[in-house]
């Protein structure tokens, strides 16, 4: 073969390969989506003076941090379904735990599914849709098979040694305050294993050149707060502050009854409002912070690998949580309220084309993640998505995509405080400065108004303050418009069905149950 002919031949082969395998050059942007579970904004990058979170903080320094981001329903499953579909809970018809996405909106196109449609490999590691945590660790729980190309379900020492965990109620972990300074290494814990799996996936993608949507869902700092002991040693328990404001009966009388009951329904944790139990409260809060730092370390491992492979030059990183979390504020622990502690979430974007070290106070919502990623990767957004792209904020940090962020809550969720017969619904909006919460279809169960300029802890309800009459009137009209808009049936959503909560079963490894599921042997903690 002549030299000229050889050159033409090999040129043809190279061009053919590029034509037949568009992934060789990996020209499209990849996405690394990292989601924590029950993580609030107690992070260094959000101004917390104690919490050690260097890797999340560094991620914020390399991208855009949203100060005013909020979930759409402060409970794991509904929030995650809203995020993955880009729709409000009124539109997903999902408001309970243990509900599969396709039970209520079987035809919807999810975030990972859309990437799959465009040739991406869509991978889930850990918890993205709802898991009973820790009950269904190691399984696919209520996952959606249509979202992913394949999935990985880590199962670690924290699950195997569950019987060792300290808890306010024996063998109650997921919804009960519980904690453990664990023995062993990071890599033995479920989230440590998840990080290792993510590292292996990044290595693979760096070699095969395929575009990916890699979703890594951490199980912590959700209860039980389990992390290796070294993370507990990073904190001085005596320095942990417990807020005792908003715990008096006089305070409860200043807010609507449904609001008061959202912060008093967890009976087992009310003992922490007694200052005689302050050391116990400090121990529990320290465990939450230690677990947060453990999660931060796993995120650091993943991002380090991303950079080592060079994939960071072509990968958008998104970090967030499914909802906020009370740590004694208003005399409440955990989530399921319409206060800022429960609605507000960390949200950080970093990667190619995104400015570094930018902070935005624009009100944004978790459902905005879906259209933003579509915008950044230049993929057409499905018509069922009602969230708004945040890309304009990346270009102009003072830009606002909306005037307020909307969160909904069902007061009927609260155990013995059952409002299901009266149908009480709560909706809350957070603007740049104010929060307005409305209880009842027409506000018949009351309103709450908070001015964050003077009251960031939301302890002074201004509804009856004449100085705020015009603000209240304006925000009442605004929240009604937001609610009406959130209830509209999105174009392309397809069928909307009634949700049915699946039966929940929880087993601690080592316990023995009879044929009826009753525990007949409980493995001791010192075994």
Task: Describe it.
- The protein has 527 residues and is α/β, with parallel strands linked by helices.
- The chain has one domain (61-521): 3-Layer(aba) Sandwich (Alkaline Phosphatase, subunit A).
- Helices cover 30% and strands 18% of the residues.
- The chain has 16 helices and 20 strands.
- The protein has helices at 3-20, 54-61, 76-85, 89-92, 101-104, 111-117, 157-160, 190-208, 229-232, 249-252, 257-262, 278-309, 340-343, 369-377, 391-395, 469-486; strands at 30-37, 63-70, 121-126, 150-152, 166-167, 178-182, 212-221, 225-228, 315-321, 326-327, 333-334, 344-350, 358-360, 364-365, 405-410, 425-430, 434-439, 447-451, 512-513, 519-521.
- Strands 1, 2, 3, 4, 7, 9, 12, 13 and 14 form a 9-stranded mixed beta sheet that branches.
- Strand 17 and strand 18 (447-451) form a beta hairpin.
- The longest helix is centred in the middle third of the chain and has 32 residues, at 278-309.
- It is globular and about 65 Å long.
């Amino acid at each position: 073969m002549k030299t000229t002919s050889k050159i033409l031949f090999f040129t043809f082969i190279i061009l053919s390969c590029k034509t037949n395998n568009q992934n060789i050059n990996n020209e499209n942007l990849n996405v690394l989506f990292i989601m924590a579970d029950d993580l609030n904004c107690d992070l260094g990058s959000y101004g917390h003076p104690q919490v050690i979170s260097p890797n999340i903080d560094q991620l914020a320094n390399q991208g855009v941090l949203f100060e005013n981001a909020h979930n759409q329903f402060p409970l794991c499953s509904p929030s995650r379904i809203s995020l993955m579909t880009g729709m409000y809970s009124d539109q997903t018809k999902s408001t309970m735990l243990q509900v599969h996405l396709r039970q209520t909106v079987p035809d919807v196109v999810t975030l990972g599914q859309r990437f799959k449609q465009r040739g991406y490999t869509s991978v889930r590691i850990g918890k993205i849709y709802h898991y009973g945590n820790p009950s269904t660790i190691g399984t696919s729980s209520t996952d959606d098979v249509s979202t992913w190309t394949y999935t990985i379900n880590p199962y670690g020492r924290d699950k195997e040694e569950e019987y060792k965990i300290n808890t306010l109620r024996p063998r109650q972990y997921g919804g009960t305050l519980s904690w453990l300074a664990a023995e062993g290494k990071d890599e033995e814990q479920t989230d440590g294993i998840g990080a290792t799996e993510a590292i292996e996936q990044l290595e693979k993608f760096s070699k095969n050149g395929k575009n990916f949507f890699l979703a890594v869902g951490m199980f912590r700092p959700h209860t039980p707060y389990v992390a290796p002991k070294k993370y507990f040693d990073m904190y001085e328990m005596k320095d942990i502050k417990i807020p005792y404001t908003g715990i008096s009966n006089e305070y409860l009388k200043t807010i609507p009854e449904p609001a008061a009951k959202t912060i008093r329904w967890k009976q087992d944790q009310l003992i922490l409002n007694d200052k005689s139990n302050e050391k116990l409260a400090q121990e529990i809060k320290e465990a939450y912070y230690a677990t947060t730092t453990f999660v931060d370390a796993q995120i650091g491992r993943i991002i380090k690998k991303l950079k080592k492979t060079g994939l960071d030059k072509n990968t958008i990183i998104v970090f967030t949580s499914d909802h906020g979390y009370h740590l004694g504020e208003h005399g409440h622990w955990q989530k399921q309220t319409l206060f800022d502690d429960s609605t507000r979430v960390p949200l950080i974007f970093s990667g190619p084309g995104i400015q570094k070290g930018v902070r935005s106070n624009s009100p944004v919502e978790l459902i905005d993640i879906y259209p933003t990623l579509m915008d950044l990767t230049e993929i057409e957004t499905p018509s069922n998505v009602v969230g708004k792209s945040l890309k304009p904020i990346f270009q102009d940090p003072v830009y606002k995509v909306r005037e307020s962020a909307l969160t909904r809550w069902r007061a009927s969720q609260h155990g013995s405080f059952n409002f299901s017969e009266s149908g009480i619904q709560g909706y809350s909006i957070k603007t740049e400065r104010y929060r307005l919460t409305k209880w009842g279809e027409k506000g018949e169960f009351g309103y709450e108004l908070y001015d964050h300029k003077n009251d960031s802890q939301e302890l002074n309800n201004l509804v009856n303050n004449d100085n705020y009459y015009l603000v209240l009137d304006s925000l009442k009209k605004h929240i009604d418009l937001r609610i009406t808009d959130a209830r509209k049936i999105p174009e392309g959503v397809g069928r909307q069905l009634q949700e049915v909560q699946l039966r929940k079963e929880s087993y601690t490894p080592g316990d023995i149950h009879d044929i009826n599921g009753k525990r007949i042997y409980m493995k001791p903690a010192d075994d």
